[in-house]
Amino acid sequence: MPSQKLLMLPMTLALISAPAMAADNPGSHQHGHAELQLAFNGNQVDLLLISPAGNILGFEHRPRTEEEQQIADKAIEWLGETPLINTAESTCTVNGATVQNEVANEHHHDPSDEAQHADIEVSQALTCSGLDKSAALTTPLTMQFPRMEHLDVAWAGPDGQGATRLNHGEHSFRPER
User: Fold this and answer.
1) Could you give the CA distance from residue 123 to residue 121 in angstroms, rounded to a whole number?
2) Structure confidence by residue, pLDDT tens digits, 51-71
3) Which domain holds residue 169?
4) Model pTM greater than 0.85?
């Protein structure tokens, strides 16, 4: 069942209107900036995180050293296993996750090319008990990845949509669902 939910994610997130996401031109690759899109339905949340790899890994090239490989492996594992949002009262459960890492797939580029841009995209299907009763949500992203200076959060659900921006160190937001 989680795979079905993840297949619905692009269609659900497409409901988030352009004005809600237009704050910083979400199509652009800006170091220090990342986007988190949320689609609510009862206690279920589908989410999509898009971030330059540099925000998460500290580099945007294929790992060149054992240390860089360990950084990449650890970050990818964390992003796949850790719920990227939680209610203020409890931790959400990851039902399914996909992490797409362009850095690992750049074998066609010259590994010495420092000017390349690579993104990491994470899709998660979550169950969050008490989601409909929780006034605030939290995300571990801005604390886990200090290079993530701004996290633009947009959401859509049965009761409407909205957006906010979290700055470095901020981790709580109040979506009006």
Assistant:
1) 7
2) 999 999 999 888 999 999 999
3) 2-173
4) no
Site of tokens 């797409």: 100
**Pair 63, 54: CB distance under 8 Å:** no
Place 172 in a pLDDT band, splitting at 50, 70 and 90: very high
Q: Which residue in the block uniquely carries the two structure tokens 């906010």?
A: 164
Give how many domains the chain has, as a whole number. 1
Q: Which residues contact 87 (CB under 8 A, 6 or more apart)?
A: 128, 129, 130, 131, 134, 136, 137, 138
Tokens 């931790």 found at: 91
The average confidence (pLDDT) of the chain is 81
Residue 140 burial (CB count, 10 A): 15
User: Cα separation of 174 and 142, whole Å?
Assistant: 16
